[in-house]
Amino acid sequence: MESTPPGHAAHPTRERILTATNELLRRHGYNGMSIKQISAASSAPMGSLYHFFPDGKDAIVRESLESSGAVYLQLFQAIAAESPSTADAITNFFDGAAALLEASDFIEICPIGSVAREIASTNDPLRSATHRVFTSWIEAATAMFATSGLPEIDARQLAATFIATLEGGFMLARAARDATPLRDAGVVFRRIVDVMIATARTPSKGVTPRMP
Amino acid sequence: MESTPPGHAAHPTRERILTATNELLRRHGYNGMSIKQISAASSAPMGSLYHFFPDGKDAIVRESLESSGAVYLQLFQAIAAESPSTADAITNFFDGAAALLEASDFIEICPIGSVAREIASTNDPLRSATHRVFTSWIEAATAMFATSGLPEIDARQLAATFIATLEGGFMLARAARDATPLRDAGVVFRRIVDVMIATARTPSKGVTPRMP
DNA sequence: GATCCACTAGAACGATCACTCTAGTAGAAC
DNA sequence: GTTCTACTAGAGTGATCGTTCTAGTGGATC
Questions:
Q1: Is the pLDDT of residue A36 over 90?
Q2: Hey, is the C-beta of A153 within 8 angstroms of any chain B C-beta?
Q3: CB atoms < 10 A from the CB of A86, how many?
Q4: What distance in Å separates the CA atoms of residue A9 and residue A18, rounded to the nearest whole number?
């Protein structure tokens, strides 16, 4: 793999542009954020913006989403690695997200989720960028659940649901200005992870048992 | 006069404005939708828009969110009422959402969730409007889970997680242009509902048991 | 049949949008 | 010290934003 995915040097101005875009996306979303705002927040004049990103706003947003998606992936893997069990990793992830949300006065939500909902039916290049990021997260979570003994199919379903629950928890918590829904989701989701891992370890029960 | 909540008569033009706004919100979100678009889609000139909604775009969006929030609440309660069990209601709800999403070419997602993520940190009146809608859904789901024998606290946690998982499922499905994540979330969430209800019916296990 | 009011109709307003353009600067290469 | 390139700088472009404005229309009321 190259040093950076599209092969760009890490010029400081370029980095500032992406950082500022990432923060503006969290607060205002795609349509609520303007190029002028990026210029002001990054202290980069218009000329620099279009020097580094000749394809304009969409190109900046696309790369911002990709880079912050990679950061979240690393964060997930770090938490997974340092947690004593998969179930503990789930708890740590939800609680960590809740703490971050509170510390930022309910601003620091995931920009990828916001953009995905906002532009998925009008801007296909950006839609597929969000899809790729989500897929990378689901892959990582699938691997984690599979390590705990879950069959591949169950692990993948659980991983997709994990991301969905986390993103939906961000949404409810932001709307409520209260991180409780996110913590609640962590409690409930840890429970299902406990149950599914325990079930997978008692093969007599089969893959998808129902109530007797 | 107070037949509808804020006390407005159901003038046909007014209805068309709200319907058009609801649809535009799904596709483009709050900032991606313009007053001119509402005017065109509802065949109502600017004069009519500001005659019925003197407070402008935000007032239109607020009422559109409230009315579609009420429609979803009724839909939820209808599905809950006609499903043979709470767990079946969950399955029906996720599968119904997935079918609707596919039938609409991945456009018909929940507008409340999109607006919540988009404006929650910049527009407090609209933020609290989305919060009220989410709360009404969580109340209804809490009642459903409580009816199945869950303690109030568990029912409320589960209800909040249900809404979070559903909204997050919409997001993943839309980004992927594939309803699989939504159906996966339905399978997983039905599983946790089965487990929690079964656990609640065997009081020897206590309220929040962990793995032995 | 004059008056009135709810509603229709869309042009016009200043602000802001994404983007383009010209001009200038700093430092490396020779 | 000239030349070249990478980057900075921000005014200017036409389009579109949310909103306001004036002008009209049709039907009920007196």
A1: yes
A2: no
A3: 22
A4: 13
List b or e across B31-55, with b for residues whose CB sees 16 or more CB atoms inside 10 angstroms: bbbeeeebbebbebeeebbeebbee
**Record: contact B191-A194, CB cut-off 8 A:** no
Residue A50 burial (C-beta neighbours within 10 Å; 0-12, 13-18, 19+): middle
Which of the four pLDDT bands, split at 50, 70 and 90, describes residue B8? low
Q: Which amino acid type is present at position A184?
A: D
Nearest CA-CA partner of A161 in B187, B90, B155, B106 = B187
CB atoms within 10 A of CB A170: 30
What is the pTM (predicted TM-score) of this model? 0.91
Tell me, yes or no, if B171 comes closer than 8 A to chain A by beta carbon.
yes
pLDDT of residue A197: 92
Alpha-carbon distance of B204 to B202, in angstroms, equals: 6
Query: Which token pair is B153?
Result: 């606290």
Ramachandran area for residue A69 (φ above 0: left; ψ -120 to 50: alpha; else beta):
alpha
Type of residue numbered B200: A
pLDDT at A143 over 90: yes
Q: Tell if the CB–CB gap between B171 and A168 is shorter than 8 Å.
A: yes
* Distance from C-alpha of B104 to C-alpha of B170, rounded to nearest angstrom: 13
Q: Which residue of A has its CA nearest to B101?
A: A121
Three-state SS string over chain B comes to CCCCCCCCCCCHHHHHHHHHHHHHHHHHCCCCCCHHHHHHHHCCCHHHHHHHCCCCHHHHHHHHHHHHHHHHHHHHHHHHHHCCCHHHHHHHHHHHHHHHHHHCCCCCCCHHHHHHHHHCCCCHHHHHHHHHHHHHHHHHHHHHHHHCCCCHHHHHHHHHHHHHHHHHHHHHHHHHCCCHHHHHHHHHHHHHHHHHHHHHCCHHHCCCCCCC
